[in-house]
Amino acid sequence: MEIIVMGCGTSQGVPLVAHDNAGLDQANPKNWRSRTSIHVVIEGHHVQVDAAPEFRLQCLQNKIPAVDTFILTHGHADHVLGMDDLRQYCTNNGGAAIPVYSTEQGLKRVETIYPYAIGEAASPGYIALDLHRMPEELMLPGGGVVRSILLPHGSEPTLGLIFEEPSTGTKFVYYTDCKTVPTPAVNLALDCDLAILDGLRPNFHPTHMTIGKACEVAGEIRAKQAYITHMTYQIDYATYTESLAKEYPKVGLCYDGLRIKLG
Ligand SMILES: [Zn+2]
Ligand SMILES: [Zn+2]
To answer: In which band, very low, low, confident or very high, does the pLDDT at 119 lie, cut at 50, 70 and 90?
Structure first.
């Protein structure tokens, strides 16, 4: 299984526009974060999780050759607004609609923003989306499995995702945009090879985990390796990488373009 971090910034991206971004070393490219999304290749099948406003650029920079399945974790703008740039992947699939899985609210948001892409309204050459509620267990072509569980995130619950690749026996957990990781989600994630966890910033936020809380969760789920995502400008890459290495040696920070192979 291969995981590509397409973006790991919070909803406004990093650095912030028209802001002093105090404490952030803008000379370090790892502090330039586009909005959060990942691409997972599992048993040779390409799964895109969310489409940030920078989705097109992220696909070019990371040389993403295909999107076979799309999972939208929730309907917030920073995760849904890049979906129109799935166009070329539809064309390359002979115009076939891309299967899209999300929460009830996430699917409603897709229908509101992209009515021209759904069902009979979909025209050749544009995006075509085939919408489905995300099941608890999604069997992918090739044999990969994605389990899901709802995570609290204010008024818009988020899909927590657990990827399991039978051929390598590897397990990857993706819990972005969540205030907490409730016990059932901890149990699903236990002993994973890799976890990518929401760790917005050091201080309290009503709908996201702090970086400290994310580190605690990494320990609770006994992740062999964990990375933090969805970060604000308050998290300077070099500063936090150094402090995490001392306190939580299994936890690191994502950066745009990070690739991790499991198995
Ligand atoms: Zn977000
Ligand atoms: Zn969100």
So the answer is: confident
Tell me the residues surrounding ligand 1 (ion) with CB < 5 Å: 11, 78, 177
Tokens of 129: 């989306």
In eight-state DSSP terms, residue 121 is: G
CATH number of the domain that 249 lies in?
3.60.15.10
- Ligand approaching nearest to the C-alpha of 200: 1
Average pLDDT score over residue span 177-196: 98
Q: Residue 170 pairs with which residues in a beta bridge?
A: 165
Whole-number Å distance, alpha carbon 58 to ligand 2 midpoint, is 19
Say how many Å lie between the CA of residue 101 and the centre of ligand 1. 17
Distance 190 CA to ligand 1 centre (A): 24
What are the distances in angstroms from CA 191 to CA 43, 143, 150, 226? 20, 21, 20, 11
3 and 194 in contact (C-beta within 8 Å)?
yes
Residue 146: strand pairing partners: 138, 163
Q: How far is ligand 2, taken at its centre, from the CA of residue 79, in Å?
A: 7
Are residues 80 and 71 in contact, defined by beta-carbon separation less than 8 angstroms? no
Gap between the Cα atoms of 93 and 20, Å rounded? 44
* Domain with 159 in it: 2-261
Of 15, 3, 4, 10, nearest to 229 (Cα)? 10
- Domains: count for the chain: 1
pLDDT tens digit string along 65-75?
999 999 999 99
- 230 Cα–ligand 1 center, Å: 7
Rg (CA), the chain: 17
pTM for this model (two decimals): 0.98
In the predicted model, what is the mean pLDDT of residues 178-202?
98
> How long, in residues, is the chain?
263
